[in-house]
Amino acid sequence: MKYSRALTLLVAATVALSAAPAFAAVFIFFRLGPASPFAATRFDGELDAATKRVYFLGFRTTGDITDGSVWYYDIASQSYADTGIDMPAPISNYQIAALNDPNGLGFYIFGGRDANAQIITTVQVYYPATNTTAVIDTDPWPGKTPSGCVSLPANGVAVVGNTAVVMGGLSFVANGCLDEQSAETWIFDPMAPAGSRWSKGADLNMARGYITPAVLGDTVYAIGGDTNVGGSPTPQQTVEASDKGTGAWDDAGVSDLPQVCDQSQAFGFTAGALANTVVLAGCGQWPNAVPDVLQFNSAGNAWSIVGTLNDNRRNHAGAWLGASGRSAMFILGGYGQASQFIDPIFSSEIGPATTRPGSAGSRPSSVPHGSARGIPAT
To answer: Model confidence over 119-129: pLDDT tens digits?
Structure first.
């Protein structure tokens, strides 16, 4: 039935493309990768090119427990290992920004949901070269919802140049605040003087959280996400774009998703068969998820469904594997249908396993990773 559904989606996509000849999609298929020894969700991964490892800075695991341990996936051996280091403040609901600061390459995470189900403002960094961590006490996460609640940015983090663009966020009555959303965008510069690393960016046109970001060249895309309706995340179709994440957000000029999506992973490509496209690897539809893989063609300003994942999942981690990975996109864990979206799943997927010729080795312009997402701080 799974393959029948995939065929139906691909036929539908082909029909849609025949009506829009300016948009030529590439069908994309993922293969299952090595399963992890830990069940994880509401987390993210990031590649350290020097060691060819993808790092995970803690996660939500079974029984809604927050685990702060730092793990990595070794691309060459296709194995997972615990670094023996924990993040200072164990959190879930984060996305990683790979940034260079005076100490070297650091993997930054902003705020998140802690083990007590509270939304916090802590900014933390993990340095893969030294296997050490730090808390940036001078520059906590400043994002707020309209009533002044600390916002949960969850996956809404993109990297342009050497700055992080953190977009949107939600707050919840369950966390002692209000059920609402933020339109704020904040820019983090790790090379700025302590105490002045955050600057305010332009507001989104649509306030929401759990946005899936992507980057093509200097254009940052804010894809889908959730509004908070009575404590329940409500998926959206909205897609907005901004120059470098600092320019005004354009909603009207960017095509929306063909279906609501939230809490996913996206990859932007500037070369190869996938050049000038964004691939959305899965489509969360809280509290459920569909396995659809969607592609945005920036030249044609159009979306299409171009394949399916092997597992329905949302709140999964994502990372680019680099040239050593042979395939560009890696996703892991999340909530899956097999677990009835209660406990995380262990499987990973790697793609593109099959596309039109020439896609292997295509390099993303950036990988806006991460996922977010219990107690209704989802």
So the answer is: 999 999 999 99
Got the DSSP string for 57-109? EEEE-GGG-EEEEEEEEETTTTEEEEEEEE-SS-EESB--EEEEETTEEEEEE
Cβ–Cβ < 8 Å for 110, 164: yes
Spatial distance between the Cα atoms of 65 and 80, rounded to a whole number of angstroms: 20
Residue 371 lies in a domain: no
Distance in angstroms (rounded) separating the CA atoms of residues 234 and 225? 8
299 vs 129: CA distance, rounded Å: 39
Question: b/e map of 1-31 (b: 16 or more CB within 10 Å)?
Answer: eeeeebeebbeebeebbeeeeebebbbbbbe
Q: Report which residue type is found at 227.
A: T
Segment (H or E) for 4? helix 2-18
Structural domain harbouring 348: 2-366
What distance in Å separates the CA atoms of residue 60 and residue 62, rounded to the nearest whole number? Answer: 7
CATH number at residue 314: 2.120.10.80
Nearest to 70 by CA among 52, 93, 44, 49: 44
| CB crowding 253-284: b at 16 or more within 10 Å, else e | ebeebbebbbbbbbbbbbebbbbbbbbbbbbb
User: How many domains does one find in the chain?
Assistant: 1
In a domain, 372, yes or no: no
Round to whole Å and give the CA distance between 307 and 280.
10
Rounded CA gap, 129 and 273, in Å?
A: 33
pLDDT tens, 304-315?
A: 999 999 999 999
Residue 326 has pLDDT above 60, yes or no: no
Residue 374, in any domain of the structure: no
CB count within 10 Å of CB 310 equals 18
pLDDT score of 365 more than 80: no
CA distance readout (Å), 184 to 153, 163, 187: 10, 16, 10
Q: Is residue 373 part of a domain?
A: no
> With contact defined as beta carbons under 8 Å apart, do 366 and 329 qualify?
no
